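Ligand: glutathione. Inputs:
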Amino acid sequence: MSSEGRGQLTLYSYWRSSAAYRVRIALYLKKLRFKTIPVHLVKQGGEQHNETFRSVNPQGLVPVLEHEGHVLTQSMAICEYLDECFEPYPLLPSNPTGRARVRSLALQVACEIHPLNNLRVLKFLKGQYGEAVDSVEWMAHWMNEGFVAIERQLNDRCSGQSGYDDVRPGCLSASSCRRYTTQSATVLKCQFSR
Ligand SMILES: N[C@@H](CCC(=O)N[C@@H](CS)C(=O)NCC(=O)O)C(=O)O
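Predicted complex:
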């Protein structure tokens, strides 16, 4: 079904949030129209901490999707919700193995790499350890480790060794977008420049 007959999609989002990017990319891949409510994560200490936003998402995180009276959080849950509600342009392959592979790649970013580099984690590290911790080095370390493994899996895919043929490039970019756009970009870009 198209988005036209299914009610307004509203996304609470911040332009630099990689989790919100995942959902925005999924929305665009599925050609769905949506309204954006910006939540500035930095200005005035971060709008995610306001009671108004906490009443929408008690976790104080973007993205949040509102649809037909439902309030949905967690980017991967939102992407799968969109895929289930709106059939055209599927994000996941039609077979169970393909779906497991796509989910695995996406979760490697969403559950392993991203949480360690999140704003609140970096703030805590700086608050606790100050100059003793180099947050850029910290981010680069976890991103490098994660993306080395992902690149290796994709190389296997390119050489036809691991059966990744059914993984749509868009699905992966929804999970791994913005890998070059953080402060540690320079380090990573050199290593993952294809
Ligand atoms: N696992 C969550 C992560 C959401 C998340 O961490 N969002 C970040 C932006 S990328 C955020 O809102 N951070 C606010 C903060 O750290 O204060 C998801 O995938 O949706």
